[in-house]
């Protein structure tokens, strides 16, 4: 196929080639029943003598040309080139020189096409390509918009019908998402973290999904320490949502933990007190400089976690009270 050759040989024509392939594949009808997914590094051949459905066309292209790998490699190569041109091109939304597209378009069009392949082709995104995309956009972003696009793209992949192979979720969460500096998270980044956090812990049986609510079945959650780091070190709006997520997670107890409420309360209070003391000791040691102010801000956030947790538990108490709620 000529479009594939252009992808391999001429980066200038990469975006028109991607758009053309998506338009052509979109002319084929979707299958009446969803087929089983194939890995992103391969696909099943279409049955001979029958009209092709869209997923069969995409699978055939994937099998013959490894399109997911090809587009992911192209994105990495483009990002390396964009990094070299950064001093000359400070605005990612502008079209520079003889280029026909802005940097934002270059990234978005590739991500859009990859999602089309995965969703309409019923393919799983495999570990190698998932890490490659995360590395070039989230870890080594050229512009902040790259990281934001990456967060939103992976959030979509982890939706109700995920496109990321469930077998690699835990490893990807541990080795990539949890390694990103919490200070780099945006609200979209926290939403991305939240989807991995819940998916991985549900798969491990530590969270239980009931009627769109997640119930705590095991307090030793993967990613809980990172969530605390987000509370302490992220931007204000991101930290606010992280505090809400902590409260939601540890106040919605599942059947196994209904008899362990006291232990859960003690663990949460102790976690808050330990972090409060660490920040307080830093403030005392540093006096009035900038680092001390940051530690004081962390103390305020920890106190908010404790306050909101206690208020939620008080509000959820269903029985007649002997002791007044702490809010009063």
TrEMBL record:
Record bears the keyword Protease: yes
Residue ranges constituting the UBP34/UBP24/USP9X/USP9Y-like ARM repeat region domain according to the UniProt record: 3-201
Example GO BP: proteolysis
Keyword tags: Hydrolase, Protease, Ubl conjugation pathway
InterPro entries: ARM_UBP34_24_USP9X_Y (IPR056850)
Superkingdom of the source species: Eukaryota
Gene Ontology molecular function: peptidase activity
Protein known as: UBP34/UBP24/USP9X/USP9Y-like ARM repeat region domain-containing protein
Species: Rhipicephalus microplus
